Amino acid sequence: MQDKILKIKDLAVEYRNKGSYLRVLENINLELEKGEILALVGESGSGKSTLGKTILRLLPDSARIKSGSIMFKGEDICNLSEKDFNDQIRGQEIAMVFQNPQNALNPVFKVGTQILDVLYFKSKKQKTRKQLKKEAVEILKKVGISDPEYRFGEYPHQFSGGMKQRVMLAMAFISNPSLLIADEPTTALDLTVEAQILNLLSNLVEEYKTSILYISHDLGVVAGLSDRIAVMYAGRIVEVAATKELFADPNHPYTEALLKCLPDYKKTEELQTIPGQVPDLGNYPKGCNFHPRCSYSFERCRKEDPNLKEIGSNHFSACFLNDS
Amino acid sequence: MFIYITKRLLWVIPTILTVLLILFSLSYLLPGDPADIILGPRATPEMAEDLNSRLGLDKPWYQSYLIYLQNIIKGDLGTSIFRDRSVLKVILEVLPYTVILTLSGMSFAVFIGISIGLLAANYNNSYLEKFLTIFSFITASTPTYIAGVLLILIFSVNFNLLPSIGIGEGGILSRLHHLIAPALALSVGWTGYIARLTRSSMLETLDQEFIQTEKSFGIPRYYILYKYALKKAIKPIIAVIGLGVGRLLGGAVFVEVIFNRPGLGRLIVDSVNERDLPLVRGGVLVAALLFVIANLVADISYAYFDPRIKQK
Amino acid sequence: MFKSQKFFRFKKKIIRVIKIMKKDSKAYLGGSIIMLILISAIFAPVIAPADPYKTNVTKRLEAPSLENFLGTDSLGRDILSRLIYAARPAVLVSFGGIIISVIIGIILGLIAAYVGGVVESLILFIFDVIRAFPPIILILVLLSIIGPSLLSVIVILGVTIMPRYGRVVRAETLSEKEEDFVEAARSLGADNSRIIFKHILPNIFASVLVLSGMDMASMIMWEAGLSFLGLGLQPPLSSWGVMLQESYQYIQTAPLMIVWPSLAIMLTMLGFSTFAESLRVALNPKLNQEV
User: Fold this and answer.
1) What is the pLDDT of residue C182?
2) Do residue A96 and residue B216 have CB atoms under 8 angstroms apart?
3) pTM of the predicted model, to two decimals?
4) CB atoms < 10 A from the CB of A293, how many?
């Protein structure tokens, strides 16, 4: 049994909204093995980004962890003080790349300055910026930025989207993190660029042996990338399985529907859709969150919330259909 | 951008001319006979005649107005009736004090205001922030003269820490000492405004995505605040400084009177009381000029920082 | 049809604004202070414990006591009563001044926007000339010409502030003029005055309201400041500014005396500005943060 690098148990996250609290994430149980690529898949509004940000405490002040624990390398990082968390975890052990590279970098500072700042704090202010410059240029070269010395002194708006994302990856891998959280890193990029970035990502992962939590809404992308997939819907995890098994033998009705929605150029029928709409963040229906749109729902689904249960070898699903 | 500046400058000229016209017509607008009012009952006919010719009342108004304008262009603002000296000289003597006072007041307002605003943004949603917000509101509602009076009350009358009169004799230290209370009083109203502006500008910047990126890479919060957020947030404050100078010029009037300091504001008040017409005209002209220039600079810097115009 | 539609939207807007303000503590704070001032002004004879004009040379400059809550001034008059009565000129100056500014400003602004051309340039020019003077100095000089009295103070303040409203009204009218619903109304035969009153005015109403809150505070501040310098209201007329001036001479011997009118002025300004701030946030739904 490999050691698990990340173990989230019974996590619940709420947002304060004008006096009352909205439950945004509920009953999250997730485990990530060392060296594994776990995809977190769901539609917009499923809470997947929120989950990613919660791990790195990047949520706004109005959000809080109501209950549960996040064990990283055996330690509950929820208990760390903000200072310790920032010094030890952020940008050290766990790093994150974001979806929209356009806004991710500060427009009034040179790219080189921003990289240097990350390096500076990572070295615990020990080295000077001059010393770190060499490292920074090296990293830029590694992620495939041509002419890195020159690029170092340029501003973000002089970089293309793909190049900015490379810079982001560079900044993320600077400190050789054990866990990388990738929040839809290629969604905002063109298809060709997407392929390049994914390639780069695989290479980096191989080199640094990083575990990855890859957040995406695109099942197609993660199919070729991830070892396991966790499916999210309306703030909950509804199914977890090895990639091949998820595609071959989906259990949860939502997963099933998702797979049906994938356009297949071989078929000529109409594109499938799931009737109904994703519920608003925090405004989840009573009982199983998916039941209003589920074609298999029955009495129990309207009343109770199903929990993740192991239904096969390392295959989990949260559906009452499995109980009967 | 250049076009904008030129347009504004051109617009200023007729405005100033009209201001001059208004100032010139003061001698005709004063109720009663100028000689009576200004010189009093002991005026002799010769003095009255002299006064009339000085004020240009002995000629048809358009002639006098032209002479008036010509003189202004030559730099001659007339002669003060009661001080018997060139108006320009009198003004230039006291103007530096007002300038120093205004600049000090502005510096106080900017430093204290930005600090408060930064603190409030950093400790967002805490009791400290609520306290600072209330404090900013209160200072923004404190008129300059009341701030002056209260400062005198607390620091001069009660604690005898700060001098309440004059600009200080002997040495720069004494001058600085005498500058503290007046400059503080002047800055009070503006400090609150800058604090609130800083806070909201910072919060807006902090909201942006790149802040999140920097945070995720482990850059500590204080660094994010002071290096990254501040640089972006400071723009609106610079744009607003020109406006502040204009406002402070008005407040200087009160401060100079209360603290018994020489200055342009005090000069205008005194000359209005004395009915020293040439001095009133000259003083108000200079004040208006300064005010217009300050507003112009404010408008231009506003336009400079407005990305829509800058993009041209 | 358009008339009732626009009016209905207007009414709904008012209701929505009131709802938002109900939840804002600033509105309550500001509103209650304003109410306090108004009540003091209107019901002064009823509320004030003593006659503000009654002098008593034997009781000069007394400290606060049971009989005179805030003490007595240099002529033995009860300070509390004077303070309450002084709310009257404050209210008159602020409301009177604002009404003048707003009315003249709206008229000139509308004319500028509608007539355009030379007239518009002329009106804008007048605004610019007024704005070329630092407000205090302009008020000072005008007062010295006309002579200080309650009426002249109100009128001069009104005229000094008027350009702000004129410009705002002109700008908003210009943009509203081009709106579609105005075109539609016109095609149905509505004449200009109908358009102005039913469509344009309700829209500029919001901006004008917020501005006037802040300006009312400023007017009180200026009147008090001028009276403090001895250039505003003159005794026996008594405003907080006049009280300030009277107390200033005794700042060494009776320091407490100057505190009361100072607090009154600050409180009033605080009330108006917080209320105006709350109005501003409520009227502009996009602004979620406070400034």
Assistant:
1) 62
2) yes
3) 0.74
4) 19
